[in-house]
Design a protein that fits this description.
two-stranded antiparallel ribbon; DNA-binding; globular; 7-stranded mixed beta sheet; 9 helices; Rossmann fold; about 40% helix; Arc Repressor Mutant, subunit A; alpha/beta; about 15% strand; 9 strands; homodimer; about 230 residues
DNA sequence: TTCTGTGAAATAGTTCACAGCG
DNA sequence: CGCTGTGAACTATTTCACAGAA
């Protein structure tokens, strides 16, 4: 990931904010007016002191003896995360994954409406997916300008990922969410995060293997062992 | 995430192993025989001492003056991650996301073949997706036993995620990869990891906002500001 | 009294730097 | 001589514990 401006808050703190926000929205939906750090920390699965420190590091204050005002906290955390406005996104690569993402309502409902779809394959260009007409990646600069896009989701085959990323950066995109199996190199001013299914499964595999070994090996198909996948 | 047996290696170390493995497989594919910690660390984007310590913590040794044997390292890291055998998986929820995952070739190529698809909707059961016939979730126990499954990917709507997880755990599944917008509660012996698109985008949003603020705000549609998404 | 905000302690993780092996 | 393996220093992060505000 590129580093951006040096900041005084740790990435661990930033990564917890979406979790706090999700719980806060649930509390707000249930018309809860205030919440203590103990309660919210319990809901979010963190230590109360960690929660208080996280909020304090952004200057977000509660009321001693009372707790935090839920609606105010939602507002403040949203501002800190940059969620006081929508972030329209473009999906690059309209294969199975791209289609799934375009149809995923969890995006628009959380402020990330899909505004454009791009592909390099002429047989896909012109298709309508989730109500959006697929455009050719050669037109990316025009699309980015037209839709005021800052974020692109890369859902191409792995071999095309770097190329797609370069094109989008050249078209003015400054944040990438990389959904492919390979890492993408970017200039320092561009932010990237990668979501990789196989990496997650490999980590799961480690802990799964370890905990079943500790229990005596039940549940793991060890009889299938010793055919390395490399 | 559930904790499993207390271990002496940090989660940070485990999370780096898949990255090392990916680079090692590239080196192996290019017939590179040995690699120094400096070189591999550079490829993986970590400090060389961190790499050496990570490997040493699993008892994986190199040769002083030479480096590490690439093929041996691939083998050892695979064993540590539990990748010396395949991990057949089941996808629960055959909507857009489930279909995308079922068709994603990055899974089988890395040792996680999709062996079954489950859904609760009778109009989907019986469909063939990616060469696999969708079965009803009521039959999950039989499916898990038949295919010797240990890992389930939850790709249902968020509201059904906990339910789906409970059913799969009751059917003998011991690792879950949760692809929905909500957290899932599980017993201690079950491992869970969650991949959430909106969380990733929110973190991107934070850094994007911050770095464009540092550059004077160019590139962000600030004129659209102030319509909170909550 | 309750619960925040935060020094200070504890813990975890990273990096340096170098002894010593091949 | 080059590079690993690791004590020790350093940095980051979490947690405790409590003073003090409401």
């Amino acid at each position: 990931m590129s580093e951006g401006a040096a900041s005084r808050v740790s990435e661990a703190t930033v990564a917890r904010l979406p979790r706090y926000l999700a719980r806060l929205l649930e509390l707000a939906a249930a018309d809860t007016a205030t919440v203590s750090s103990d309660h919210l920390a319990e809901l979010a699965g963190v230590n109360p002191a960690t929660l208080r420190r996280d909020l304090a590091s952004f200057g977000i204050a509660g009321t001693r003896g009372v707790g935090y005002d839920v609606r105010y906290l939602v507002y403040e955390v949203s501002i800190v995360l940059g969620l006081n406005h929508e972030w329209p996104i473009v999906i690059v690569g309209v294969g199975n994954l791209g289609r799934a993402l375009a149809n995923y309502d969890g995006l628009v409902s959380r402020g990330f409406p899909v505004r454009a779809l791009l592909d390099i394959d002429p047989s896909v260009v012109g298709d309508e997916v989730a109500g959006i007409t697929v455009e050719h990646i050669d037109d990316s600069a025009a699309v980015v300008a037209r839709e005021q896009l800052a974020v692109a989701v890369i859902a191409t085959p792995s071999g095309s990922a770097q190329n797609a990323a370069d094109l989008m950066i050249g078209s003015g995109i400054s944040s990438l969410l990389n959904f492919t199996a390979v890492a993408i190199e970017v200039p320092d001013v561009v932010e990237v995060r990668r979501v990789d299914l196989a990496t997650e499964l490999q980590i799961l595999s480690f802990y799964q293997q370890r905990s079943s070994a500790a229990r005596g090996g039940a549940g793991v198909p060890l009889e299938k062992a010793l055919s390395p996948i490399c």
